[in-house]
């Protein structure tokens, strides 16, 4: 059984699984598994979620059978906990963190983003010395919050060169039985500002999934030049694109529109291109938000939002209404950019529900998709669509009666399985 290594901020939850009920076999049989089976209505309104108990069989990382519960079966007793798809953090930086070391909050920023780049150039050599071990600690934190997959941005720039990527790949290899990831080659210091070009070109030949970027106008001073390079590198190596965009003025809007145009010119990038943060969308008037959301949806360009709070409210509902893929993640967890972050995307779903007034049973149940990267047990009509025989056995068990309660209460994670491997 994989053990959960505790760090100071992780509370150990009572485990469903114990050494004596796990054999060396790759097959698991689980009883008393609570699954959602439909909605209960009153005057055409969803007033509750119906559930029942089932027997689940898992073999070679897949669900091979779902049958009515047998309380007397020789099986692992899940004790009626709710089974949901394991969570996915779709925007995080596993490669650079203070987590696992002594506590420290961020310091006052000087010189904007370029000032932060100068700070990183000083910090990265020291951070790289322990970045593999800290990445593993971060993964263990995510495990404790029910997450077994992440899209991680990883620094590719002249200070780190490819070392940040290589160190993170070691951590991921060490955790491969319990955690999956896709990687974004991220020129945190700009593509041309600090000349990350040769390192990005080399990273593109390695085991990464996306070519990243950050504020092409603010950092590189050239929207078209930077995006043209990024798009061509992605096309040449069959990668996706995921670009940080914090700019909230005219340059931010021009960047969004230019990227949409480039994706439309290169249909191979549809469904593989994302804008992270994209705060400009929160600054547009309602009509412009609708226009850009429609264009993003048509081009199949997704948004990975950290669901910011404060004065800036992103138009996430508008985006979703236009068919835009919306993801969320923790972004930074205690590093030189951000003090906050507890590692829970279920907390992000809860924040989303509060920000956008999603308080009914039905709407709370829909908010779960922020934690699961758009996988829901029930469709909008209440038909069961997950789990199905043949699905990956990547599952989280929560002390909740249904998804709506899980989102509303940020329910406790009891156990986690990744591709048939028991994490804890």
| Main sheet strand line-up | 6-7-8-9-10-11-12-13
Describe the largest sheet: 8 strands, parallel
How far the N terminus sits from the C terminus, by CA atoms, comes to 7 Å
Low-confidence stretches: 1-14, 19-25
N-to-C SSE series?
Answer: EEEEEEHHEHEHEHHEHEHEHEHHHEHEE
Number of domains: 2
The overall pLDDT, averaged over residues, is 93
CATH architecture of the largest domain: Alpha-Beta Barrel
Strand content is 15-25%
Question: What's the CATH class label of the largest domain?
Answer: Alpha Beta
Protein model, in words:
This protein has 424 residues and is an alpha/beta fold. The chain has two domains: 19-85 and 381-422, Urease, subunit C, domain 1 (Roll); 88-355, Metal-dependent hydrolases (TIM Barrel, Alpha-Beta Barrel), CATH 3.20.20.140. 31% of the residues lie in helices and 24% in strands. It contains 13 helices and 16 strands. Strands 6-7-8-9-10-11-12-13 form an eight-stranded parallel sheet. The protein has a four-stranded mixed sheet with strand order 3-2-1-4, with no helix packed on it. Strand 12 (301-305), helix 9 (316-321) and strand 13 (326-328) form a beta-alpha-beta unit. Helix 10 (345-355) crosses helix 13 and helix 11 (361-367) crosses helix 13. The termini are close together.
């Amino acid at each position: 059984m994989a053990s959960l290594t505790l760090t100071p901020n992780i509370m150990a939850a009572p485990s469903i699984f114990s050494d004596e009920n796990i054999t060396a076999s790759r097959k698991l049989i689980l009883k008393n598994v609570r699954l959602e089976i439909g909605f209960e209505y009153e005057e055409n309104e969803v007033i509750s979620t119906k559930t029942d108990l089932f027997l689940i069989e898992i073999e070679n990382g897949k669900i091979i059978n779902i049958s009515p519960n047998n309380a007397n079966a020789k099986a692992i007793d899940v004790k009626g906990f709710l089974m949901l798809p394991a969570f996915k953090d779709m925007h995080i930086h596993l490669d650079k963190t203070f987590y696992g070391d002594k506590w420290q909050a961020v310091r006052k920023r000087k010189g904007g983003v370029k000032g932060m780049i100068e700070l990183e150039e000083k910090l990265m050599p020291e951070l790289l010395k322990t970045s593999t071990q800290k990445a593993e600690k971060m993964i263990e934190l995510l495990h404790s919050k029910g997450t077994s997959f992440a899209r991680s941005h990883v620094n590719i720039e002249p200070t780190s060169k490819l070392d940040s990527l290589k160190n993170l790949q070691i951590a991921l290899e060490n955790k491969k039985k319990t955690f999956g990831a896709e990687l974004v080659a991220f020129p945190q210091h700009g593509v041309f500002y600090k000349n990350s070009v040769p390192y990005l070109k080399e990273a593109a030949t390695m085991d990464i999934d996306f070519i990243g970027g950050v504020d092409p106008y603010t950092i590189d001073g050239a929207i078209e030049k930077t995006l043209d390079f990024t798009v061509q590198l992605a096309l040449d190596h069959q990668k996706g694109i995921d670009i940080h965009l914090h700019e909230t003025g005219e340059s931010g809007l021009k960047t969004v529109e230019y990227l949409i145009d480039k994706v439309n010119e290169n249909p191979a990038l549809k469904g593989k291109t994302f804008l992270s943060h994209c705060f400009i969308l929160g600054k547009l008037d309602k009509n412009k938000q609708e226009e850009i959301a429609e264009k993003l949806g048509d081009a199949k360009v997704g948004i990975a939002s950290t669901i910011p709070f404060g004065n800036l409210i992103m138009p996430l509902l508008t985006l979703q209404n236009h068919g835009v893929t919306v993801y969320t993640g923790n972004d930074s967890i205690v590093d030189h950019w951000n003090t906050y972050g507890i590692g829970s995307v279920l907390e992000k779903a809860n924040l989303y529900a509060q920000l956008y007034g999603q308080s009914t049973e039905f709407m709370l149940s829909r908010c779960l998709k922020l934690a699961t990267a758009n996988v829901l047990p029930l469709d909008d009509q209440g038909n069961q669509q997950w789990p199905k025989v043949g699905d990956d056995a990547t599952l989280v068990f929560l002390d909740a009666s249904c998804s709506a309660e899980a989102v509303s209460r940020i329910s406790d994670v009891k156990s986690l399985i990744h591709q048939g491997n028991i994490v804890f």
